[in-house]
Amino acid sequence: MADGAIPDLIAPSRPRSAHAHLAGDLLLLADQAAVFGLSPEDALRMSRALAKGDGATQAELARLGLDSVPAPMPDTTLQPVRALALTVSQSCNMACGYCYAAGGSFGGPDTRMTPEVAQRAIDQLIDSTPPGGAVKIAFMGGEPMLARDLIMGSVRHARERAAARAISIGFSMTTNGTLLRPEDAAFLAEQRFAVTVSLDGDRETNDRLRPMNGGQGSFDRIAKRLAPLFDLKDRLSLSTRVTATPNNLDIPRTVAALSELGFSSVGVSPMLTSPTGKGALQADDLPLLLRAMIDAGENWLADTLAGRPNAFANLATALQEIHRGKARDHSCGAVRDYLAVDAQGAYSACHRFVNDPLGEMGDLDSGIDHKARDTFLRQRTVTAQDSCQTCWARKLCGGGCHHEVLHAGRPACDFVRGWLHFALGAYARMMAEKPDWFDA
């Protein structure tokens, strides 16, 4: 598609009513995040009503009997913390220019978490969980494998403490993959880890965007070290995460390259803020990214409908969320039931808020600051965001990443709506042609 036609992808998704949105013959009720299939005639009437604004839209919803569908009350109730990210290494062996963690150190000195801090954080998590409950622990960085021995010791400690209280426990890690050893793969598989590897494309693209600290490329090094993990992928969850910047917007090519490497799940996350400003997507980049994401989504649709595998995870996730039909009051579980602990033992709203006063949530000595959690959660709920109230996608989106919104506002709303508009159309097609996919 020519660049001049790209804005047309955004136009159909611009808000026309705060109450509803139409994608083909599929109607979304905004407050309920519920979808309804309309006849072609009713879809035409709804399209005309949407063009006239909220009053006409509400009248048409009433005619369809959809004006009384109950909307869930905004849920700002704190949940017990059941997921914890341990920032075990605030340092990194790579030099990605866009790194949200400012080179892994989060703007401070290079630091490693001590076993004492890790065990105290784990103990506080498990001790606050009733017997029979479940918790999750994520190991983050910087590059977490710089703290290999700490991770292994922490997992063993957590397993022992959880077993003593009849608590089930799951582990995950996000890594650049450059330090993995065969024995690490065996350990991660034994412990049933969910492992996410950060990669930004094929060899040329990844080496340009994700060099080692000395400037060398990282792709071949990562590919070699991933081989033992791929050999054990039936015993762990293995995926890759792509950071989309202005310099790697060919998403279909990226998905194909990482699929060829061996990944069956490739997720793409736009880079909207970075400490240096490098790599952040600008307004002119977002329509290009939307075009590329839709192209990758069309590839996923074609392959899935034909029974072929396709690793592009973003559309699969969006379809599952739409099918689930649960209105989102927040974009993620940060603060609500998930916190991070940094190397010094300070709690933060999530792993992106390490060393950020906007996300301070107490520390291991004084305990979790539940008042700060409650204030943060109430302020960040989507119903408290004035700019979201006229957006039909608010209960699908949840208001956006807390860290990005607080530091950059909402520069990507057109992109998000455009993507969700496409996803709604894809959902209608999947329900018509392959509804059993959702059962699986």
From TrEMBL:
Keywords from the UniProt entry: Iron, Iron-sulfur, Metal-binding, S-adenosyl-L-methionine
Domain of life per record: Bacteria
InterPro entries documented for this protein: 4Fe4S-binding_SPASM_dom (IPR023885), Aldolase_TIM (IPR013785), rSAM (IPR007197), rSAM_sf (IPR058240), Sulphatase_maturase_rSAM (IPR023867)
Coiled coil: none
Reported cofactor(s): [4Fe-4S] cluster
Molecular-function GO term, any one: iron-sulfur cluster binding
Keyword S-adenosyl-L-methionine carried by entry: yes
Domain Radical SAM core: 78-309
Entry keyword annotation includes S-adenosyl-L-methionine: yes
Xref: PANTHER family: ANAEROBIC SULFATASE-MATURATING ENZYME HOMOLOG ASLB-RELATED, RADICAL SAM DOMAIN PROTEIN
NCBIfam families recorded: rSAM_more_4Fe4S
Protein's name according to its UniProt entry: Radical SAM core domain-containing protein
Organism field: Thalassococcus halodurans
